[in-house]
Design goal:
globular, 180 residues, 7 strands, five-stranded parallel sheet, Rossmann fold, two-stranded antiparallel ribbon, alpha/beta
Length: 180
């Protein structure tokens, strides 16, 4: 059997639960997975061009980011957790999970993170307009893009169970393909 695990992109508007889902998935996956919080990696490694004071966010050096991620992704068994997905090459992804959240809950989650009002409004509008979902649908084959609701703990538990089942099937299919 191949030891290379799947590459899963977990994306969504900030506050939809990407990092929590990713960490739970690492804990519950039937195959070893490495969680990469791409936004944190960018900050830690200095893969940004500048800090935008108005939006309180970094302008990412996508070329540097992708060059550095390439060998990690090639090894497989990784979850890429980021609020955007279109930067990642289509060939990288085995599954793209877009987390969605009711906009009033999202507003509360972002307030708890002390986001400034303009950033809360922008992210809330992006969620209402399905910006990340449309980005994923435009960037990857439809059969690998999955939209999951992330309003409650029950949603999160159901989502993790669903993704674990997908990993199990994906792994079995790869084992069969390797043997034949």
């Amino acid at each position: 059997m191949s030891s290379k695990g799947p590459v899963i992109i977990i994306t969504g508007t900030p506050g939809t639960g990407k990092s929590t889902h990713s960490q739970l998935l690492v804990d519950e996956s039937p195959v070893p997975l490495k969680h990469i919080n791409v936004g944190e990696w960018v900050k830690e490694k200095g893969w940004f061009e500048e800090f935008d004071e108005e939006w309180q966010s970094y302008t990412v050096d996508e070329d540097k980011l992708l060059d550095e991620l390439e060998p990690v992704v090639a090894a497989g068994g990784v979850i890429l957790d980021w609020h955007t997905c279109e930067a990642f090459p289509e060939r990288w992804a085995d599954l793209v999970v877009v987390l969605r959240c009711d906009h009033s809950q999202l507003w509360q989650r972002l307030e708890k993170r002390n986001y400034h009002l303009k950033k809360i409004q922008e992210n809330n509008e992006a969620e209402i307009m399905q910006v990340v979902l449309e980005e994923a649908r435009a960037s990857y084959p439809p059969e690998i893009v999955v939209e999951l609701k992330s309003d409650s703990m029950q949603d999160m538990e159901a989502n993790i169970a669903r993704i674990v089942e997908w990993i199990t099937v994906w792994t079995k299919e790869r084992a069969v393909n390797v043997e034949t």
